[in-house]
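Recall the central idea of this unit: under ordinary conditions, the amino acid sequence of a chain determines the structure it adopts. In this exercise we apply that idea directly, starting from the sequence alone.
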Amino acid sequence: MHPAAEHSPLGKSSEYIATYTPSLLFPIPRATKWAELGLSAETLPYVGVDFWNCFELSWLLPSGKPVVAIGEFSIPADSPNIIESKSFKLYLNSLNQTPFVDIASLEAVLRADLSAAAGKPVGVRVRRLSEVQAEGVVALPGVCIDDLEISVSDYAHPRPELLRCDESRVVEEALHSHLLKSNCPVTSQPDWGSVVVEYRGAALDHASLLAYLVSFRQHSDFHEQCVERIFLDLQRLLKPEKLTVYARYVRRGGLDINPYRSTEKVAFQNLRLVRQ
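Accordingly, the structure predicted from this sequence is:
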């Protein structure tokens, strides 16, 4: 468990406060987990973002009439802190009985509070339900590897030694799987996700990638660190010209978390899947 998480509200009984309380936000330094992966803020081999989507966002108009919307938050992958998920939920619920003149005023408050907690500017969009509904859901790019035949017996921890590639062939492809599962390092609750690997490099053996992803099944870590571990393991194996790894996780407590990590400075898209 991350040492800071022991002092967070995650896994504890909490009173839900319905009026604006920014002090509820609980930042957790990324540095500890980076160090486990042999990284530091100065040596990150990727750029990226963590998209958070909130489906339980509500506040009051000056008249007292409530409004509901969907919040989209983009936290830089190199920010000093992640924001512990339950504290994020408690903070957002503290807006329920708080009046705001308009959406722009709400966005300004969210941007200031979340940026202060993350330690870097956080992008904020408050979106009307009709806008998100019109976008619908999307399919992941590339080839789905979930129907490949594999034998699995060890689910306790990620096993990068399972990964195989053909160094004599260089390919550019996108692969995805819906079989990613890990556990919350604090509560042990399951985290379900779909993961995408896009790369140009030594040809990755698809079945070995699937076996490797399944090996996360009983692993305990935060969403962000799982994606970073996958990225690093593939980077070491493939020595790619370019590599992007991202995961779209199923929401819990009205929030979903979607980490993106890439060697390329691209415009990441926050598009929902059918399980989201």
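The chain has a mean pLDDT of 94.
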